[in-house]
């Protein structure tokens, strides 16, 4: 099965990740802008200049009549994903990213007064939506998780437990960042706190219905423990908290591939055949978080399919 939208995402992501060409007519402009940005910052940031130049190019405000200029909102979202993963990988300070957006805003405002890509959207909306999407997966699939945890398949039970652990890590990180504090910061993120409160209530109800199962699932009552929540160390895990978005796709995670499972075709409710191995292998090179969310959904679909076959 071919997924055209994945090709579009992958191609855009690869465009953003390309090095600056030697014949790029705007190379000297990128260098000048980044020299000014980095010179005004403290610390050893000179080695970040190549990344800065790449980001200035990707924002497209010096690249008129190319695909980089005047991006669609969809392309901005892919750019945000690229910025997040590539900056984490290369250790890029956030103030460099913010300054690049400042230059983008200034230049675009001079041209036409409107811009589509935004640092605020990148920082305060997109990343939070990514993390909340994982918590929504718990809510949408709580019945599947409950049935699996009450079942006899130890491997699937452990995977479900690890998924719950990672959900709680996200909850703890976001709740601490936005909702425990009082004042303007909490008010600014009131929608996020509302979603976290919903997760809190849903998880407590879920936990209360599964007391006494083995393996035991973590409780929100232990949230102040330093090692909260305890996850199974022997199982391959998703990355935690903000690092969840950096989760590696191949060779780890919820759906370990083996000769016995790699060719199993799953059936969704509408009868579409999904081959786990084929889908995941087709996702090589796309933004890791998109692949991670898709992988979790494939895993939950497989759990549901297994349960349906046994009932």
UniProtKB/TrEMBL annotation:
Residues 258-272 have a biased composition (Polar residues). Residues 252-272 are annotated as: Disordered. It comes from the Eukaryota. This is Uncharacterized protein. It comes from Plasmodium vivax (strain Brazil I).
């Amino acid at each position: 099965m071919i997924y055209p939208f994945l090709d579009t995402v992958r191609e855009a992501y690869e465009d953003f990740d390309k090095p600056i060409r030697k014949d790029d007519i705007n190379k000297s402009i990128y260098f000048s802008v980044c020299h000014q940005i980095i010179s005004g910052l403290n610390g050893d940031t000179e080695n970040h200049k190549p990344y800065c130049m790449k980001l200035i190019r990707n924002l497209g405000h010096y690249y008129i009549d190319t695909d980089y200029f005047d991006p669609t909102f969809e392309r901005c979202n892919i750019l945000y994903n690229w910025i997040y993963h590539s900056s984490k990988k290369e250790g890029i300070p956030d103030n460099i990213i913010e300054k690049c957006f400042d230059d983008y805003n200034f230049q675009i405002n001079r041209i036409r007064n409107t811009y589509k890509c935004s640092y605020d959207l990148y920082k305060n909306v997109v990343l939070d939506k990514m993390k909340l999407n994982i918590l929504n997966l718990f809510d949408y699939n709580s019945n599947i998780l409950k049935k699996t945890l009450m079942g006899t398949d130890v491997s699937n039970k452990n995977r479900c437990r690890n998924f719950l652990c990672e959900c709680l890590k996200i909850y703890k990180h976001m709740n601490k960042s936005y909702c425990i504090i009082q004042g303007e910061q909490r008010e600014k993120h009131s929608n996020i706190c509302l979603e976290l409160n919903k997760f809190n209530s849903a998880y407590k109800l879920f936990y209360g219905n599964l007391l006494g199962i083995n393996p035991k699932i973590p409780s929100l009552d232990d949230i102040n423990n330093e090692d909260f929540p305890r996850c199974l160390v022997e199982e391959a895990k998703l990355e935690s908290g903000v690092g969840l978005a950096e989760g590696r796709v191949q060779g780890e995670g919820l759906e370990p591939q083996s000769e016995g499972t790699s060719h199993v075709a799953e059936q969704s409710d509408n009868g579409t055949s999904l081959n786990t191995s084929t889908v995941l292998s087709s996702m090589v090179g796309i933004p890791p978080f998109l692949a991670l969310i898709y992988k979790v959904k494939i895993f939950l679909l497989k759990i549901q399919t297994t349960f349906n076959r046994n009932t």
